[in-house]
Amino acid sequence: MTPFGARLRELRRQRGVTQKDMAAAIGVSAAYLSALEHGRRGVPSWATVQAMIGYFNIIWDEAEELQKLAFASHPRVVIDTAGLSPAATELANLLSAEIGLLSEDEIGELLARLRAMRGRKAG
Length: 123
Description:
By secondary structure, the chain is mostly helical. Helices cover 69% and strands 0% of the residues. The chain starts with a helix and ends with a helix.
């Protein structure tokens, strides 16, 4: 499951909405919605994300959070290390091979560190 899929499921459950009802309301199939929630489909289109935001009637920070989660939740990531250092290529390959062995705490630590780096770059 992707972060977007988990949030989507949470929003549906909070509002007592079935996949079938939501899918019909936003113009997608229930199978597609299920695949999004389970991380078996790629990033939804911008229009689909906007339809979901409208469906749940969320605004501002919550809508922005859902958009960010959608576009950062592709379940099959490809990392192009062409032009980067050998160490960067090794890191990408090790992460690919070992990610399933990391504990949730270890994943959280890595995420926190990478997010902090992103914050320093933006600032």
